[in-house]
């Protein structure tokens, strides 16, 4: 999760008290999107490989 949510623009990671040492505010959306892309690619690649 750190690789996906730990980066991003500083303005998206700021929180009073901890500064910029936070995940992106878009972390949940990023994970949802990447899970969808991963599943779609796996499905499409499996269809291509069928004889």
Unreliable runs, pLDDT <50, ≥5 residues? none
- Determine the strand fraction and express it as a percent band: under 5%
Number of strands: 0
Order of helices and strands: HH
Helix share, percent: 40-55%
Radius of gyration, in Å, reads 16 Å
Shape: rod-shaped
What structural class do helix, strand and pairing data support? mainly alpha
User: How many angstroms does the end-to-end distance come to?
Assistant: 36 Å
Give the biggest beta sheet: none
Average pLDDT, to the nearest integer?
82
Number of helices: 2
Observed structural traits:
about 50 residues; 2 helices; mainly alpha; single chain
Structure overview:
The structure is a single chain. The chain is mostly helical. The chain contains two helices and no strands. The termini are far apart. The model has no long low-confidence stretch (mean pLDDT 82).
Secondary structure elements and pairings:
Blueprint: H1 2-5, H2 27-49
Write a brief structural summary.
The chain contains two helices and no strands. The chain has helices spanning 2-5, 27-49.
